[in-house]
Every structure is written in structure tokens, then in C-alpha cells.
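Progress against Task 2.4 (sequence-to-structure conversion) is shown through the following example record, which the project officer requested during the mid-term review.
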Amino acid sequence: MTDYDFTAWEAYALGPRSASTVEKFLKAYVDKACLVRQDTYRVLAHGRPELGERPLVTLQFPDLQSVIQAGMEQRRVFFFSLPPKDKQFIRVTLGFCEDDTLVFGLSRPESTDVADVKENLMKLIERLHCRMGLLAVERAPPLSEKEFKEAASLDWVLCFWSGSDDGAMPRHDP
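C-alpha cells generated for the chain above:
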């Protein structure tokens, strides 16, 4: 399917920025121990020029709840990976986008059949009532709804899904 070696499939879904959606994602996909542990989290975020910040800044948080609270309140753009509940996944990703949306990501090893990864993507979309989804190979997620739409025609996107009034509609599936 690809002309080079890779190590992971990336399935990303774009959904509304809401605390209940984040909670649903964490409960479904993130290792429970991570949810209660008091770890320090460092995330790389897009800086805010209006505050005199550099293009990228490192933010530090005392626990996972603080990271999520900052993402919900500060309207910063940042993504971070968490350990998966289900070991079929390499990692799960939660991203706070520039346009008040969220990106939810699931990474699977390259040895996984692409049909299984597509199924994971569709379940993620359905579970979280997402508007769009895509399947790629070792790519960072798009940072906004606009970037998701633009990704539909890019060669690194293996599958693109966008909801419509009459249900799911595959748009790009080479």
C-alpha cells in the first residue's frame, strides 16, 4: 500500500470541544491508571503572539485534569499522547484545535490490517459524534476543521470521512 516502511497507522477524528466528549474519549480509550495518577504533564503548545510568546511554548501541568481544563478554557492549540487502555493501540492522542474543535487519535502498529484501522476510526467517530475522520500513515493531526477538509485530497490521507445529513459518506478512499 505504501512505498516506504512505516511503524504506525494514525486514525484521527474531529469533534466538538466539550468536556463530556473528552470524558467519553478518556473513559473509552485511555489507561485507567493514567486518569488517576498525579503526574506532571508537559505539552508543546502553539504560542500566543498577543501575549509575547514564541511560536511554540512548553506548558507544564500538575495532572491530567489541569491539562484538559487548560485546553477547554485557554483556547490554545496543543496535542498530547496518552497510554491506551486497549493494547491493540500504540497510543491515543487528544488535541485542542484553533477553531474550538477537538482531535481524537488512535495509533495502531503498521502490521495491523488497514480494514481494522478503518473500523477503529468509524467506531471512534460514532462513539464521539465526530464530524470528520481520516486515516493516515505517521502524520500529526490537522489543527482545525479547515485543515481536516483540505487533507481529504492529500496523498498521505488513505481514507477520509465526512458526515452528511443522510449519514456517513466516504469522500476519499484510494
